[in-house]
Design brief:
- By secondary structure, the protein is α/β, with parallel strands linked by helices.
- The protein has an eight-stranded mixed sheet, sandwiched between helices.
Length: 323
Amino acid sequence: MTSPANSPALARYLAFRRSLPPRPPLERRTVRVRGIDFAVYLTPAIDGAVPLLCVNGGLLFDHKLLWPALAPLATSRQLIFYDQRGRGETGVPPGMQASRIEFDGGDIPALRVALGIPQWDVLGHSWGGGITMLGAAAEMEAARSSVNAVPPIRRLVLVNAVGVTGDWLPPLHEAGLARLSGAARDRLAALDPARLADPDLPYHAEYAQAFFPAWFADQLFAANVNAPLGNSATGAVIAARLRRQGYDWRDRLGEFLRDAAIPTLVVHGAADVLPLSEAERTAALLGEAQVVPIADAGHNPFWEAPDAFFAAVHTFLGGAPLP
């Protein structure tokens, strides 16, 4: 392991982790939703607190991308994680080759209903931020014809979320190469991002591992984190479709989220290779949103700048105004 003295971000993270109480246990449930058995994981309920759904990104990965990273939020509310369709321990959807990220978005309101939760907050990271926005739009579309007086989503948190169009994807490979050096750069440079338009799971998994250190602002910190191995064929189909066809969610999100005026925190590591300008663009589209840049952090501010990240999220979810 790199000495914390050589990596300010690693030193911050280790000091923050030492300050935490023991993390709570996760209860696993199987929840049948839209013809699929979803693996759902819950921390203990907190009386009087709205639960928080946490939606991981990565497309090839399960909920472990955010657990136990987000465990500090469990001190004030119940956290709910789940493995998206065809990831982790959740069943593969029928017609898997037709999978699209919009189907993931539609699972969010269905999961809330199946769990018997009238209202929750939702946090999404990276591609999970995109799923969160699509899910919130689906919730608000359904709410228009509902007699329920309680809005299904109280607050949204988007953490280094993907952009509302796919414009950020083509430059990402070069941005990753510019961030890396030595063997890490050579590994990524040997891969062709054009091949990600095909749903070849081993290639998608290799590319994700090669790109992983580029998500960090501090490369010494990155060297101390094992890159996860993606193993979801469903996720590879979705990722390939997004690469091949592109996407533009502006009309749908503008129609169903702007008028809903859901208070939204758009928190973004200022040194992410996914540019901060995408966070600002998203906030402008959603309207009732505040951008909070996290200095000296890349794509995972809950690791590289945990004090600033968790302070902002706790404050926002608690309803207090952010500075």
